[in-house]
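Researcher: Re-running this chain for the archive, since the previous output was lost when a drive failed. Same request as before.
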Amino acid sequence: MKILIIEDEYNLADAISCMLQAKKYNVVIKTDGEKGLEEALTDIYDLIILDVMLPHKNGFEILKELREEKINAKILMLTAKNTIDDKMIGFNNGADDYLTKPFHMEELLARVNVQLRKKNSLSSDIMELGDISLNIKSMELSNKNEDHKVKIIGKEFQLLELFMNHPNQVMEKEQLFVKIWGYDSDCDINTLEAYISFIRKKLKLVKSSISLKAIRNMGYVLEVEDEKTKK
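Model: Regenerated structure tokens:
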């Protein structure tokens, strides 16, 4: 699970990051509103811890722009203010939870865990896109129109799931690499290309009409006529 912290009090952000990393979360910190928004728009994070009072762009503005751009990461707002009006602004613009400073780290961790459990519980066992179906539990890829089925596990599975969540959208190589392997991985871009090749072979094995195409100097796109993903 990847978490983005957008908080201008670096000591606080660092303390939160250390706690979350100890729980095996992958964490990135941004201390500026504009840079935080730019990072959040990569859409590689499962949860964003977002302070309200930030330099250059406040948390409410960031929240509004993220939801307008269909970024579905869970968002936990942090604020020094404890008024109903502030909370309502956050919730009305798509915040998932709200925590007032000062707070206990244990409470923050509990709220993070709750939000990530909710995110996972929203997914059913089956993802469908175009003519393919991906079974989350059995990790099987199949063609809905043919009697063809194949196992797809590990990084192959994670990559295909990510592509199915973003059909007909160019996914940059760096974005894919960070989302699946993380910032600190020793793997290189050749590893990503190898897994892209594996996925293409699996799509061919189930005789899918969907194609995973390379976009020169950019990344990859999962091309499908039907853009509706069912989860």
